[in-house]
């Protein structure tokens, strides 16, 4: 019985560590996606500052964000 209990405790600890590591990796990937989206949004702001039309800047933003975010606004939508 003691061996079974010890094995179950060890299994539970291993599962907890695996979940924590997976969660840390997912967090790191999420951080990288947010940074990439921030770069894309900064480029969109500079595009608009340069005098280009909003349609052109939005297309550039969409291209830069392809595969990063959900939706056509690179994970961020605001009033216009």
What's the arrangement of secondary structure elements?
Blueprint: H1 2-49, H2 54-65
**In this structure, how is the largest beta sheet organized?**
none
Q: Please, what is the oligomeric state?
A: single chain
Number of strand segments:
0
Could you tell me the mean pLDDT?
79
Number of helices, where a helix is a run of at least 4 consecutive DSSP H or I residues: 2
H/E order of the elements?
A: HH
Give a brief outline of the structure:
By secondary structure, the protein is an all-alpha fold. 75% of the residues lie in helices and 0% in strands. Helix 1 runs antiparallel to helix 2.
Descriptive account of the structure:
The protein is mostly helical. It has one domain. 75% of the residues lie in helices and 0% in strands. It has two helices and no strands. Helix 1 runs antiparallel to helix 2. The N and C termini lie far apart (67 Å). The mean pLDDT is 79.
């Amino acid at each position: 019985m003691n061996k079974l209990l010890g094995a179950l405790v060890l299994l539970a600890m291993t599962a907890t560590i695996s979940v924590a590591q997976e969660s840390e990796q997912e967090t790191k990937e999420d951080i990288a996606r947010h940074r990439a989206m921030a770069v894309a949004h900064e480029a969109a702001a500079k595009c608009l500052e340069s005098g280009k039309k909003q349609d052109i800047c939005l297309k550039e933003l969409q291209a830069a964000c392809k595969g990063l975010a959900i939706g056509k606004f690179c994970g961020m939508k605001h009033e216009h």
